[in-house]
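Board notes (copied after class):
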Amino acid sequence: MISVTHITTESGAIYLKKLCHYFARTVPATYAGTKARIQFPSGPCHIDIDQKQMKLTIEMSNPDELAQTEILLADQLVRITQGKVPTIRWVRSQQP
């Protein structure tokens, strides 16, 4: 299963680094330039940024674990952005 969200922001580079630093305490998390990968036990989250937005893509086979990861990422984004991120809406699909 795939879950994707797009977040409008001009601060994507800062948020990408902060997310990776936060999650690197417990799981492998790497970033380079405009891309990042956070390797959760159930599957990866890929982050891509440009000047206007962040795109987060989670890949997991278990729908319950996917839902938990969506909440975890959304909660952390709200924290690091100090509430500046609008409502995060995840869109799920079976295929990438």
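Comment from the instructor: The mean pLDDT is 93. Residues 25 and 42 are 17 Å apart (CA to CA).
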